[in-house]
Amino acid sequence: MNSNKLSGVFILFWISFSSFAQLVKVKGTIVDTENRPVNNVNISFSGHTTQSGIKGNYVIKVPVNKKINLLFSHVTYKKTSISLLLKSASDYELNLIMKENEEQIGEIVVSKDKKSQIDGIVTIPGTLIKKIPGANPGVENVLKTLAGVNSNNELSTQYSVRGGNYDENLVYVNEIEIYRPFLIRSGQQEGLSFTNTDLVQNITFSAGGFQAGYGDKLSSVLDITYRKPTRFAATLEASLLGGNLAVDAVSKNKKWSSVTGFRYRNNSLLVNSQDTETNYTPSFIDVQTNINYKASDKWQWNFLGNISQNKYDYQPLLRRTRFGTIDKPMMLTVYYEGQERDKYNTYFGALKSTYQFSDKLKFKFITSVFHTLEQEYFDILAQYRLEDNETTIGGDTYEGVSYINGIGTQLNHARNDLDALIINTEIKGLYNWKDNNLEFGLKYTRESIRDRIAEWEVIDSAGFSINPPILDFSREDQPDTSFTGPLAPYQSVFATNYNTINRFSAYLQWNAKSNLEKAQLWYTAGIRMQNWSVSGTNSSGNSQTVFSPRAQLAVKPDWEKDMTFRISGGYYYQPPFYRELRDASGAVQDNVKAQQSVQVVIGNEYNFKMWQRPFKLVSELYYKALTDVNTYTIENVRIRYAATNDAKAYAQGLDLRLNGEFVPGTESWFSFGYLKTEENSADRGYIARPTDQRLKFGVLFQDYMPAIPGMKLYLNLVYNTGLPGGSPSYADAYNYQNRLNDYRRVDIGFSKVLIDANSKKIKKSWLGSFKELAIGLEIFNLFNNQNAITNTWVRDVYSKNEYAVPNYMTTRIFNVKLNAKL
Fold it and tell me: Count H helices, E strands: the chain?
């Protein structure tokens, strides 16, 4: 792309146009029942004709607000007639499967615009998430390239959105809420995300201002739909990090269908690239199935099940980390004894039934059970040596130690166990009439938690036990002055909690569409309610209730250019989950209030053509005013709450995303985000929140070689400015603010397609049984950037200095991957 074209991309951010288009493009891909492209298909209506190309692609212009019959014909396949009425000036995608033994007749009435334009959501096709490289591939890997979505930990699937934390994001699969394990404190312990990419059909994501039909969280909604297979198929993926197997099955009468996935993950390749030498034997395994049954035209059933076992055995041996400045390079050497043995077993099952009572009224019945058994056991003794290092930072050796500044010992111990059972029962309804629809729902949730926390840390420096900073008798003049007083762990948490939380929630939402002169309008207004009570340890069973009104307005002016404007917002409450009720000492505080957020989101979506290819520019301004804030600290991915509701906060920012066909036939995007979020705790003044990630730049790019279309390239680039997470977790944020360095990472993947739908069938060879076959090379952290997730604080008792030693993430890693489909 030359500089003039690049300049044109950015100029288009600020240009608006006017006039009205009477024709709209219908485009798509035509394939047969074996998913092979069908060329030379005649597409016609009222004397207008076109043909599909060699890849099955076609484009035809049709009138707006006029019902037409679109006819698809081919000498080999049965004719297909589609009655089409388009009420939108936007291009419409219509993909078709041509069949040999039956004729297809249908009618499609397209609403006045796409749902993503109206609701302000991002839609991601399921096929895309499997292609984009990343240390933790999947849905979250793609989300992290979007503006407003931040993460500086490639080993974790967790993310923060527009100033919120990891616990403020809703995740649904087939409209069923998904939960995460509780005790995980490090990204390398997570293993597998719940979402199996082999099963995904479609993904929608909202970064804020979402509708009342979704649940009670403050930041975002990730809504995933699993696919319903139409024929038998099997896909296989194998790499140096593990493997996946997915099998599609369909009954002869087409009433039953299922897709089942098996996954195994081993992060040894990634963890062994860090500064710490370890004996690392992880085992992340899960089995997941999505079963569909069509009992009749009115009644359908779905079962979603998952069993996951994550074992994390970690034995650190030796760590050497160089840090400091060019003038004074330093090195931390740590010798370890002991090990960590963690286990997370989760069991999830959900049954969903959809009943079409009439043409206008539909009901959905959902029940789910989530059970997690977690243990976190470790005893690790670390003996450290802090040294001046004569070698330059970034050198290849650790030689040249000139002076030992300090020595010490640190002992960490934990015996943490958690058993949680969460049961949901829900009924949802949808009633349509004319240009209106009414959505409603009622839900009951019971959360039973049994939790034991027993962990402590002892620090010794040069033979002197260092006492907790919170003790009044701690002295800074050791060892010059003798100390009198009890010896205590530097940090310790001991608690046993048995609690039950009962929740009742309901929502009512009205959607409508109308016209204002020639402009098109969409309205959404709704309200949510939740009542909850906490009983058990340290709890009296008191209940609380909140109401959350929300609204949205979208306007599509009568302009030639395809532009949509949106404004949405309302009151958003997040009733506390168990982790938010538990304070830093481990005790449950049952009187913790729901955090409240008043949100306003103003957005614009502009669809346009550039280089004769489709592009889209999405811009959003947002502001959140938060009260009853439950402050917290983040260490790696573990969140610890104060459980006091004594703060207020705000978040404001701008998100921009430009996506389209920078390379013909492939979708890519560039995103930019600005965020500022601060909190005021106990009226001490505003300071940066732990998620105050000011600037974000992300790129998701796809390309291929024109001369060799089977050779493809995928690029995943993320740049985030540093988080205020560099201070010790026990430090008072008002006395000490320290930011980590900027996070910079580029992952790139190369794939050579050996067999696909366009390939000639290979007979008399084992390769002939494959429908698709590709081999790829991935390079994680292409430029070998040193990104830190936290700091380790090392103290020299003689000089009374504390040194921040960065805990670096993974270095450059090569991975080989094989993908096959039968």
Answer: 6, 44
d(CA 84, CA 766): 44
pTM for the whole structure: 0.83
- How many Cβ atoms from other residues are within 10 Å of residue 790's Cβ? 22
Model confidence over 436-470: pLDDT tens digits?
899 999 999 999 999 999 999 888 766 666 766 65
In contact, 725 and 690? CB cutoff 8 Å: yes
Distance of CA 391 to the CA centre of its chain: 41
469 closest CA partner among 795, 806, 805: 795
Side chain identity at residue 478, one-letter code: Q
CA proximity to 624, closest of 162, 166, 216:
162
- The strand ranges marked E within 64-219 are 68-73, 80-86, 92-93, 96-98, 104-110, 122-125, 149-150, 160-161, 169-173, 176-177, 200-206
How far is Cα 365 from Cα 357, in angstroms, rounded to an integer?
13
CA geometry: angle 306, 308, 314, nearest 5 deg: 165
pLDDT tens digits for range 376-426: 999 999 988 888 776 554 454 445 555 676 688 889 999 999 999 999 999
What sign has the CA pseudo-torsion 521, 204, 185, 162?
A: negative
| Strand 220-226 with 169-173, pairing | parallel
Q: Shortest CA distance to 144 belongs to which of 115, 124, 127, 116?
A: 124
| Under 8 Å between Cβ of 450 and 418 | yes
List 428's β-bridge partners, or say none: 364, 441
Identity at 454, one-letter amino acid code: A
Amino acid identity for residue 809 in this structure: M
Structure tokens at 11: 């100029």
- Residue count of the chain, please give it: 822
What lies within 8 Å, CB to CB, of 75 at 6+ separation is none
CA distance 719 to 697: 5
- Say if CB 160 and CB 693 are below 8 A apart: yes
Chain mean position to CA 257: 28
**What confidence tier does 45 reach under pLDDT thresholds 50, 70, 90?**
confident
**How far apart are the C-alpha atoms of 805 and 715, rounded to whole Å?**
31
pLDDT of residue 274 exceeding 90, the answer is: no
DSSP 500-514: EEEEEEEEEEEEEEE
**Residue of 270, 391, 371, 376 lying closest to 331 (CA atoms):** 391
d(CA 46, CA 230): 33
Cα–Cα distance measured from residue 55 to residue 35, given in angstroms and rounded to the nearest whole number: 11
DSSP classification of residue 4: H
Nearest by Cα to 157 from 197, 124, 128, 110? 197
- Please give the single-letter amino acid code of residue 347: Y
CA gap 272, 625 in Å, rounded:
43
Count CB-CB contacts under 10 A for residue 23: 11
CA distance 812 to 803: 27
DSSP 472-485: TT--SSTTTS---S
Q: What is the spatial distance between Cα 714 and Cα 593, in angstroms, rounded to a whole number?
A: 45
Residues 6+ apart with CB under 8 A from 741: 722, 787, 788, 806
Nearest to 264 by CA among 333, 316, 191: 191
Cis peptide bond upstream of 479, omega within 30: yes
Name, in order, each residue with C-beta under 8 angstroms of 647's C-beta and a sequence gap of 6 or more: 629, 630, 631, 679, 680, 681, 682
